[in-house]
Amino acid sequence: MRVRVPFGRRRLIGVVMEVADSSELAPERLRPVLEVLDPAPLLDPGALELIRWAADYYHHPIGQVLASALPKALRLGAGSIATEEYWTVTEAGAAALAAGELRRAPRQRALLELLLSLGGAATAPALEAHAPGWREGARALAARGLAARSARALAAASEPERARPAGPALLPEQRAAVEQVARAAGTFAAFLLEGITGSGKTEVYLELTAQTLALGRGVLVLVPEIGLTPQLVGRFRERFAAPLAVVHSALTDQERLGAWRAAWSGSARIVLGTRSAVFAPLRDLGLIVVDEEHDASFKQHEGALRYSARDLALVRAQRAHVPVLLGSATPSLETLHNVAAGRYARLRLSRRPGESQPPLLKLIDLRVSALEAGISTPAALAMERHLAADGQVLVFLNRRGYAPTLLCTACGWIAPCRECDARLTVHLAAQRLRCHHCGADAPLPARCPQCGFTVKAVGQGTERIESALATRFPGVPIVRLDRDVVRKRGDLEQVVRRMRSGEARILVGTQMVTKGHDFPNVTLVLVLNADQGLFSPDFRAPERLAQTIVQVAGRAGRGARAGEVLIQTEFPQHPLLVSLLAQGYDGFAQAALAERREAQWPPFSRLAAVRASAVTREAALGFLSEARAAAHAPPRGVRLLGPVPAAMAKRAGRYHAQLLLEGRERRPLHQFLDDWLPGVEALKSAQRVRWALDVDPLELF
Ligand SMILES: [Zn+2]
Ligand SMILES: [Zn+2]
């Protein structure tokens, strides 16, 4: 429970972790709690145990772990957990509706009608379930005095379930997967649901959710940052009448608090959310699903507490004695290793429902095919063919902006970021030069600042590809999907809608296109540059590249038509591409795991990194050298590597460096961290840098 306590001269919010009837402190040194803010515990014993585990495993103060777990509003002491937001139609509202006013405000009118149909009042989660995006209308109604917002005690019981359409009949593989997970109800068991894109993993989640709800228990569904699409939320809402709590990073503090309350009180039996939802309170948790478990956004790689929500989901399931289902078309090598070791059971969905066929992958050798504005002749011909046959085309390039480099052809000047070891990206439509690492932003110069000659944009970004395609395919509607286009809520949905309706014929996009969206009429996928991931010092780069190619390829041919996937590369003989094309992701994963075993990288060893940044290179490296020296004699099986500067050493005006720790086994590594970290914290040089420990880092350089 939260309490308000005196802390020096201040008053702060604290969380009571334990109640004891004695203390080692003298009674006169103890100070009283000023106020108890919650009438009942915020976290159930299982969630509390998860927080203790995370503090221990990530070697992080438990107070800060709690701060990451609780919604900000609760941390700041706002509101009681036991009341919820409640909306009522006022007399003026009812009168206005009866008098036929609000004709010009159809959304406000619809919301009033909904409130009246629900008996004149409803909770925020109930409104969310019936009318997603209702809040704007509610605010407008409140401003006109037609509806009112208040707080009332939470109802513990869930709202009565209304009849909903049953799901489609499951295919035999789907049914087998559901039955196997359902048999594990009430015990801890981990499953990998490995299904090619379009094979109907979501249907398995929905059916298992239905069965878990029928047992009177709740379901936690974790999805990647970018995978929480209105389509997915819509499918859960369609199937279940029970209110759903949706948690993601774009929520306001009040919305986040509302979702938390709904889950805490049991009025929402399903929590659907991104990374931080792993800490959501849930009454009688019965099942955890982690969709796209390989996705890097499950790992928090900034800030102080760098946790993996996927790994915490497994710990939570284990503590709560419930099954956990990890879904992916391209499982992480860690997860495949756990399957091979017998820790996770593997469930496969090898078929797509209906008639849809897996896409056909082909390489285009850029050494022999001419490129025009980033697109090879065979690729352009294939686009023509698919467009003529009434198909849609998806063009993938993992680089936004117009061009990655602005160059002076006379003196060789390249527009640099002053704050980073990086070039500025040309954004032509906006007439800006921007740094994609620190956000630096400057006007686009027409002439070289060094010699006055005209400058030239070199290389391709999505913006440039979009305009090149508009020239090459005049009259064919094109949409783009990247972070420059998607700036506010609703932008993404609009692009997806224009593609799904067939209004747009070509989609140009970054990584954003690979996650979760269904484009049933896309018959051709074009990967413009596969080579960015082939040669990287990071041992995980090949895994990420293979996952991206398979995920992008999965967007093709999801309807009745077979798809074609063309990958442009200058390295068609590269073993990764060869194994991926010949044997699919499975074959690639086996080869990649063998390489990892040879090199003793994870999952065949354990890693932790101490990352430091400072205004000078010397301060960052100096601190890490002292930290290394403080490890007088690391135990057998634990190695310290570095310190080394980061691959992009200067970022946003600070120098970054890291010290890597590698352990053959988890236990000695963590034992070593326990012994070593207090000494590192005590170093004087630690005061002059920003540093953090990253346990199980996903990105190394
Ligand atoms: Zn110049
Ligand atoms: Zn920069």
Report strand order across the widest sheet.
9-10-8-11-12-7-13
Which spans have pLDDT < 50 for at least 5 consecutive residues?
Answer: none
Q: What is the typical, i.e. mean, pLDDT?
A: 89
Cα gyration radius (Å): 27 Å
Q: Specify the biggest β-sheet.
A: 7 strands, parallel
Number of continuous helical runs: 20
**How many beta strands in the DSSP annotation?**
30
Helix content: 25-40%
Shape: globular
Please state roughly what percent of the residues sit in beta strands, choosing from under 5%, 5-15%, 15-25%, 25-35%, 35-45% or over 45%. 15-25%
How does this model look, in words?
The protein is α/β, with parallel strands linked by helices. It is 33% helix and 23% strand. The chain contains 20 helices and 30 strands. The strands form eight sheets. The chain has a seven-stranded parallel sheet with strand order 9-10-8-11-12-7-13, sandwiched between helices. It has a six-stranded parallel sheet with strand order 14-26-25-17-24-23, sandwiched between helices. Helix 1 packs across helix 12, helix 5 crosses helix 7 (135-143) and helix 17 (541-553) runs antiparallel to helix 18 (575-599). It is globular and about 80 Å long. The two termini are 41 Å apart. The structure holds zinc ion (2 copies). Residues 408, 410-411, 413, 448, 450-451, 453 line the site of one zinc ion. One zinc ion binds at residues 408, 410-411, 413, 448, 450-451, 453.
